[in-house]
């Protein structure tokens, strides 16, 4: 099997025919949500399964909120047909095994979170079509332009001053790099080749051999990961045993040396013991005298430095007595500033919390407005007062006969 991953971009209004297939944010989300009337290609639609992020119903309002916070170079509001939603699909063959599909989903979501970060809003799975697949949706961060989340458009924007052909070449190169990145991190570890057989005009046998090779690569990668994990655990266990054995060996060496010294001392006669003790005391006494002389020399030098430091301390003490009042006043001022700073930080936290609540309310309000607008667009004609009077008039005439006139 070979990988299938694709991204598209959409605006808040339906663009001219030929751009994004005539779809807008609203229509593409309605298709993903399996809203009746938007899924003619699905015989038995089922609700999507959420793998990550917020509900699909909130994404349109989130796009509106992002567009409100962004201005163009002249300080004007974003156009309605400006791109604001990055939507993608990752699919697998119809005959893929359940375990393999679950691993592909997990690896894909991990890659998307690493690739897009907080820009990734939602990932859903559709289970009502022949090929198992998932959809993902990304919205730029506040103040961030849409080019920053679309690899191809970002590359083209970096060559804005170049000829159109150079921009298109940069776009295609960046999108090939996007596919290569997905292949390296998700496709190959799941046994999926980068291209299909028709792309390179391979024979059926060559295609099958390549698929078999990619399957072996995926199996080898999985085995290497398991082997690496086992090797790390085994190395940690070996290191723990080595440290324990080293500590025990060190303790046993000290105990053995002490025992051997005591045993050798016990074998000697009384005169030899006395001589050894006196020799040891003399050796220790000589070493102690050397240490004492060294300490005396150090003490002499330190006494000289102490006198010098005392003179300097006396001078600095006089200076300190002069600046102490100013220091005390400055300390009090710093204390007041710290209190003010804590209060400002507390007010800022309250303001941020209020702002977050207001944004959530705004998103819900925008969603409600969309729903009310949709309900207003499908309001039946009988709800119109003028139309209702006309209908009653026709019913009254038909009941009394054509020669009876109705006067309102």
Description:
The longest helix is centred in the C-terminal third of the chain and has 108 residues, at 270-377. A five-stranded antiparallel beta sheet has the order 1-3-5-4-2, with helices on both faces. With 408 residues, it is an alpha+beta fold. The protein contains nine helices and five strands. Helix 3 crosses helix 5 (164-187) and helix 4 packs antiparallel against helix 5 (164-187). Residues 402-408 have low confidence and may be disordered. The chain starts with a strand and ends in an 8-residue tail after the last helix.
Outline the low-pLDDT stretches.
402-408
What's the story with the biggest beta sheet? 5 strands, antiparallel
First-residue to last-residue Cα separation: 74 Å
Helical stretch tally: 9
Which class do the helix and strand fractions yield? alpha+beta
> How do the strands line up in the largest sheet?
1-3-5-4-2
Evaluate the radius of gyration. 40 Å
Write down how many β-strands occur, each being a DSSP E stretch of 2 or more residues: 5
SSE string, helix = H, strand = E? EHEHEHEEHHHHHH
Percent helix, as a range, is 55-70%
Shape category:
elongated
| Mean of pLDDT | 78
As a percent range, the share of strand residues is: 5-15%
Overview features:
5-stranded antiparallel β-sheet, single chain, 64% helix, alpha+beta, 408 residues
């Amino acid at each position: 099997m070979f990988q299938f991953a694709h991204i598209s971009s959409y605006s808040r209004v339906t663009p001219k025919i030929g751009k994004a297939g005539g779809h807008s944010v609203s229509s593409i989300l309605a298709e993903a949500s399996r809203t009746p009337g938007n899924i003619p290609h699905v015989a038995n639609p089922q609700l999507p399964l959420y793998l990550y992020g917020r509900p699909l119903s909130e994404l349109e309002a989130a796009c509106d909120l992002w567009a409100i916070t962004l201005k163009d170079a002249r300080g004007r509001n974003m156009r309605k047909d400006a791109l604001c939603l990055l939507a993608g699909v990752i699919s697998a063959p119809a005959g893929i095994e359940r375990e393999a599909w679950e691993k592909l989903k997990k690896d894909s979501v991990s890659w998307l979170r690493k690739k897009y970060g907080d820009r990734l809003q939602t990932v859903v799975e559709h289970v009502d079509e022949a090929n198992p697949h998932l959809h993902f949706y990304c919205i730029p961060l506040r103040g961030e332009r849409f080019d920053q989340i679309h690899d191809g458009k970002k590359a083209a924007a970096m060559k804005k001053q170049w000829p159109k052909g150079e921009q298109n070449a940069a776009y295609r190169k960046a999108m090939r790099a996007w596919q290569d990145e997905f292949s390296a991190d998700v496709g190959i570890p799941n046994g999926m080749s980068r291209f299909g057989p028709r792309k390179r005009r391979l024979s059926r046998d060559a295609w099958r051999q390549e698929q078999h090779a990619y399957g072996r690569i995926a199996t080898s990668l999985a085995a290497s990961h398991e082997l690496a994990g086992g090797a790390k655990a085994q190395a940690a266990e070996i290191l723990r045993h080595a440290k324990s054995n080293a500590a025990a060996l060190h303790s046993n060496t000290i105990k053995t040396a002490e025992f051997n010294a005591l045993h050798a001392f016990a074998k000697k006669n009384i005169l030899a013991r006395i001589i050894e003790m006196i020799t040891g005391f003399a050796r220790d006494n000589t070493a102690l005298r050397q240490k004492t002389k060294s300490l005396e020399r150090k003490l002499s030098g330190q006494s000289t430095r102490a006198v010098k430091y005392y003179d300097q301390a006396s001078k600095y003490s006089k200076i300190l007595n002069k600046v102490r009042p100013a220091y005390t006043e400055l300390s009090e001022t710093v204390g007041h500033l710290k209190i003010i700073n804590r209060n400002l930080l507390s007010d800022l936290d309250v303001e941020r919390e209020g702002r977050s609540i207001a944004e959530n309310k705004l998103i819900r309000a925008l969603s409600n407005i969309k729903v009310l607008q949709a309900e207003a667009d499908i309001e039946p004609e009988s709800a119109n007062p003028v139309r209702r009077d006309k209908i009653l008039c026709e019913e009254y005439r038909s009941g009394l006969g054509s020669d009876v006139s109705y006067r309102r």
